[in-house]
Amino acid sequence: MKLVVDANIVFSSLLRSDSIVGDVFFNSHPPLDLYAPELLREEIADHRAKLLKLSKRSSHTMLELEMLSLSRITFLNEGLISTVNWAKARDMMTGLDADDENYVALAIHLGIPLWTGDKKLLLGLRRKKFGLLVSTAEIPDMIRKAQ
């Protein structure tokens, strides 16, 4: 199953690898095909110190988890996304957090769902009838159906 993941999901998997997000992210069978815009690398770097503090793990353990997380994701350059798809994403993101526009644009570009744990984003996009969206609670059923 192919999904675009946002920073919320990756941060959750780093902070609580034993949670449902972490379990699905690291242990799903068959493994998920995860995609993200290059922006995600910057977001992880920008929040690395905060993630380390919140995790209460050693820096070595967090670095290993970060490397493992990044190895599970195929990163795509946002420059590959057409102006038409950027416009669709911008329209969807009106009134929502503009920082998430790259993830929505990539989901539209690839034609696959965006997996997010961001409740405001989830509710906002659902209100706008954005169909390429999945919550963590929906993932286990999707995996079962895909098997």
Please characterize this protein's 3D structure:
The chain is α/β, with parallel strands linked by helices. The protein is built from eight helices and five strands, in the order E-H-H-E-H-H-E-H-H-E-H-E-H. A five-stranded parallel beta sheet has the order 3-2-1-4-5, sandwiched between helices. Helix 7 links the parallel strand 4 and strand 5. The mean pLDDT is 91.
User: What order do the SSEs take from the amino end to the carboxyl end, as H and E?
Assistant: EHHEHHEHHEHEH
- Radius of gyration based on Cα positions: 15 Å
Structural class: alpha/beta
Percent of residues in β-strands: 5-15%
Residue share in helix: 55-70%
- Quaternary structure of the protein: single chain
Number of beta-strand segments: 5
Task: Describe this structure in a few short sentences.
The chain contains eight helices and five strands. The chain is an alpha/beta fold.
For this entry, give a set of tags.
147 residues; alpha/beta; 5-stranded parallel sheet; 57% helix
Summarize the SSE layout with pairings.
Elements: E1 2-5, H1 7-15, H2 20-27, E2 33-37, H3 39-55, H4 59-71, E3 73-76, H5 83-92, H6 101-110, E4 114-115, H7 119-127, E5 133-134, H8 139-146
Parallel strand pairs: 1-2, 1-4, 2-3, 4-5
